[in-house]
Amino acid sequence: MTKYVVSFTQNPIGGLRTRGCKSMMKFRENEDAVSPVIGVILMVAITVILAAVIAAFVFGMGSNIGTTKNVAATAQQQGTNIIVTYQGGADAQSVVYLAFSIDNAIKGYSTDTAGSIVGPDTTSGISTKVDVGTSWKFPGGTEKKEHVVVTARFADGSDQVILDTFV
Questions:
Q1: Does position 8 have pLDDT exceeding 60, yes or no?
Q2: CATH code for the structural domain at 72-166
Q3: Among 81, 116, 77, 99, which Cα is nearest to 162's?
């Protein structure tokens, strides 16, 4: 809001000019800045944002963010067996092998497109490519639901859980 201050010019001899002359009025505009409280709030906000950005760079919070790969697998029970099928996805070409775990016990790693696996003690001899549609059969129990976890290893060295379910 603009405030105006009115002041009268003084006669050199003294007193105000009032007779015979028109009074000379000077208008001076009083422009106050933003309220001091709002100014302080803005400065504190800017300081907090700057501190957060600097802390993110110093502590490396943004450097370990990875990308999520897009691949999938399904599991179903057939009789007493569990059948895990690799469904593929947008990143299927970069899958090196799959690791299978049933009820928190590692059952093995995929080795070829025929559905073979190597034991849980080794990753040597595993394939460098997993074909979409390949299935693996594992013995399961009928007493309770089995917890099936399939993890994919990608060409860039990263691992990602692609299936975590109960069958």
A1: no
A2: 2.60.40.10
A3: 99
